[in-house]
Each structure stands twice: as structure tokens, then as C-alpha cells.
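User: Could you go from structure to sequence for me? I need the amino acid at each position, not a summary. C-alpha cells:
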């Protein structure tokens, strides 16, 4: 196995374990003791790994424990959307050290937006005094299929002026950082996995709702993207063959039935709900963004407006059907609800999706599907975008190797470490 892959494999195991001994690394990776000794020594020399104390004795000599040096490297994540741009700076362990939100792309031309983004990335890094040399790169996520060769090929109507724009190249030139592209739902799933939001379960789906709907898939700790990077597009799953037209060219898609734009359209068509939610036109007859209007409907529902709540519940039932289909196909045990819209309206959606899975998931007699609402749903895509960069540095392709979920399933009493030792490691 090439040195680079060995190094990435060892880093990934240390990250997943939190703290681990060299003996446990041998068991988890399948590498020889000599390989582990060499790789660990070089990782320590590079400042990526640090020794954090010794394990509790079980009769033999206490073993030295290893952990990531989380302040050794950083990554920037950017979530680009019509309604807003969210930035996150994470350390090597995936913890957010700085974040900010700014105005969305609106109708501005792409080069102007890219110049603004580069300036805002500089300000984000400078805000916490991180040396730019320690920033590995920038992850960029957006709705619609993204392709490194030509930017965005198929975009939502609000971002049609971005089609064919070479986004990764333009942003890399403007920031001086390597740029990785991904769709928002896949990035959100990766962020949930990396941050440990789904402990003990490396296979799950992140059902995402921002301005659109999608899903990110994690299979045994590895994100599944599909040949074109568009796996998990449940937003464009047909739920009603005679349903409304969707911007993608099909009819009856989940997004056309349940997405924020559909809810806002229905709310505006009902004068009473529109008044309750305060859906008014802005200056010059312009309307607020779909995201802002959806948030207003969700706020009205939270304050007790029955009409607004019924709209959200109707959306949740459609999304529940799409989630059940995904759970049946993937035989899921865990679903995480994430994304800016579910950060706002998740408490309405979660019980209805859970109810549908409890009632009709095909393998329910064998195991349940547990639905969680993400703790970082609003910024999950940006966090996941930064995670992509960390993953490119740390995570190997584990082809034919022991899956991490198997390698680390059994608890190891020799790697117990106190909370004090962990805090000390992070401090250094």
C-alpha cells in the first residue's frame, strides 16, 4: 500500500477513535507494527498527531495514546445559494472555529459574486488569526448538479445565470486556495458523519431541505456520490405522475410538491395565511427570497396559525413518502434531517416522517428507522464543504480493507483517556 494511503488510513482511524494506542491502530488498520511505527512517527513530526498521555493499566505497561492535533490544519467551507452565502472555518477535527452568513447571489453576475466571496473568505480566516499556510483548501457546495469541468449545468430557476460558469476555477484563482465542488445534500451528510453526529452508525441518509430537497448517503463511513455526483436526489423522485411541473423538466417531483417554493406559493395564494405570515412585496414590487418567505410561514405556524401549520404538515407528509422510499431502497437504520429549512421547521417535519417510517417502512419488523434533527442543520452544508477538504487530506479509499465500522466496533479498555487528557491535547 502506498505511503500516502497508509498515512491517510492511520489518520482516519485516529480521527474516528478520538484517542487510540499504537497496538489498537495495528488491529484497526491491519498494518504491521513497523508500518504503524513509521507512519505515526512522521505524523507526529508533521504536527498532525500528538501523544496525549497513557492508557489505564490493565496489568501490563500502560500504552501511549495518540490523538489528532486539531489545530494543525484548517479548511474553509462555503454554501452558495440564491438566498444567502454561509461560510465556515473548521479545524482538523471538524470543529467549527468561525462562521458567518452574508447576502446571497441574487441577480449579481458570477464574477462579481466570486470576487465578493474571496474577500469574505479572507475576512473569515483573519477573524480568528489562523495562518493561511495552515488552510488546506476550500470546499464549495450549491444546489443543482455541480461538475468540476463546467460548474453548474442544471440549476434552479433563480440561479440560471450560473449555468456553465467555471465556478471552481474562478474561486481558486480569486482565493489562491484549492477548491472542491459538491452538492449541498451530499456535503451535509459528510459533515454530520465527520462531526460524530451519528455515533456508532457509519451508514445513514441525511435528508436535506434548503431552497430545494435532496439527500446525502453515507455507506460504511464513505459518502456515496454516484458516477456524476448526483446520488440521493429524492427531491426529483416522482411522487405524483399527474402532479405539478418541476423545474427539472419532470412532473410530480418531491420538490415541486413539498419544497419551500411550493409552500410559499400556496401560502401566497391564501390571503389569510399570507397576512398571518406577513408575506408582502418588498420595495419596487420585489418579493423577499423563497427562504425568507418559508421562514415566515414556519414562524406563523410556530405562533399557532393553523393554516400555516397545515401547509407545513402537508409538505412533511410528501417528504415522508420520499424518505420511506429511500429507507426501503437503502435499508436504512438512521435518517438525519438537515438543511436551513429543516433548521426552521424541523420540529413539524420530524414526527410526521418518523410516523410514516414506523407505519410503513418495509423492514420494520426487523429493525426500526430512527429519525434525528441535526444540531447544526442551518450551517450543515458549509460545515460539510469544509469537511470535504479535510476528508481529501485524511481519508483513503478503503478498497478491500477492513471497514472502519468493523475495525473499531469492539471497545478497547486500554485506550480509556480522561476528559482532562483530551482537553490538554486540544490545547497543545
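Assistant: Here is the amino acid at each position, in order:
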Amino acid at each position: 500500500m502506498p505511503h500516502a494511503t497508509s498515512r491517510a488510513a492511520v489518520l482516519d482511524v485516529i480521527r474516528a477513535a478520538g484517542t487510540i494506542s499504537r497496538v489498537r491502530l495495528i488491529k484497526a488498520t491491519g498494518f504491521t507494527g513497523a508500518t504503524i511505527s513509521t507512519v505515526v512517527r512522521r505524523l507526529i513530526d508533521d504536527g498532525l498527531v500528538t501523544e496525549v498521555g497513557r492508557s489505564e493499566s490493565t496489568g501490563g505497561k500502560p500504552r501511549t495514546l495518540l490523538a489528532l492535533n486539531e489545530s494543525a490544519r484548517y479548511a474553509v467551507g462555503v454554501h452558495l445559494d440564491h438566498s444567502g452565502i454561509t461560510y465556515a472555518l473548521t479545524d482538523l477535527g471538524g470543529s467549527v472555529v468561525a462562521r458567518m452568513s452574508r447576502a446571497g447571489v441574487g441577480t449579481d453576475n458570477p464574477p462579481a459574486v466570486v470576487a465578493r466571496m474571496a474577500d469574505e473568505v479572507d475576512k473569515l480566516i483573519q477573524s480568528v488569526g489562523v495562518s493561511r499556510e495552515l488552510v488546506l483548501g476550500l470546499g464549495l457546495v450549491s444546489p443543482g448538479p455541480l461538475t468540476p469541468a463546467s460548474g453548474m449545468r442544471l440549476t434552479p430557476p433563480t440561479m440560471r445565470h450560473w449555468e456553465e460558469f467555471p465556478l471552481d476555477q474562478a474561486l481558486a484563482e480569486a482565493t489562491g486556495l484549492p477548491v472542491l465542488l459538491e452538492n449541498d445534500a451530499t456535503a451535509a451528510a459528510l459533515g454530520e458523519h465527520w462531526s460524530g453526529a451519528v455515533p456508532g452508525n457509519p451508514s445513514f441518509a441525511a435528508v436535506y431541505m434548503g431552497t430545494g430537497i435532496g439527500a446525502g448517503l453515507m455507506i460504511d463511513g464513505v459518502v456515496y456520490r454516484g458516477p456524476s455526483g448526483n446520488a440521493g436526489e429524492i427531491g426529483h423522485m416522482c411522487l405524483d405522475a399527474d402532479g405539478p411541473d418541476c423545474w427539472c423538466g419532470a412532473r410530480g417531483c418531491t420538490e415541486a410538491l413539498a419544497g419551500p417554493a411550493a409552500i410559499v406559493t400556496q401560502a401566497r395564494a391564501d390571503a389569510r395565511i399570507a397576512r398571518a405570515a406577513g408575506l408582502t412585496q418588498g420595495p419596487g414590487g420585489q418579493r423577499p427570497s423563497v427562504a425568507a418567505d418559508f421562514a415566515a410561514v414556519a414562524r406563523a405556524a410556530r405562533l399557532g396559525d393553523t393554516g400555516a401549520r397545515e401547509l407545513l404538515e402537508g409538505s412533511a407528509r410528501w417528504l415522508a413518502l420520499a424518505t420511506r422510499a429511500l429507507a426501503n431502497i437503502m435499508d436504512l437504520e438512521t435518517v438525519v434531517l438537515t438543511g436551513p429549512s429543516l433548521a426552521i421547521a424541523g420540529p413539524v417535519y420530524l414526527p410526521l416522517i418518523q410516523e410514516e417510517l414506523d407505519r410503513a417502512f418495509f423492514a420494520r419488523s426487523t429493525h426500526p428507522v430512527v429519525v434525528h434533527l441535526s444540531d447544526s442543520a442551518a450551517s450543515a452544508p458549509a460545515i460539510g464543504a469544509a469537511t470535504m477538504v479535510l476528508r481529501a487530506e485524511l481519508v483513503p479509499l478503503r478498497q478491500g480493507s477492513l471497514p472502519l465500522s468493523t475495525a473499531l466496533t469492539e471497545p478497547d479498555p486500554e485506550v480509556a483517556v480522561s476528559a482532562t487528557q483530551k482537553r490538554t491535547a486540544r490545547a497543545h
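One structural detail worth keeping in mind: Residues 306-330 form the longest helix (25 residues).
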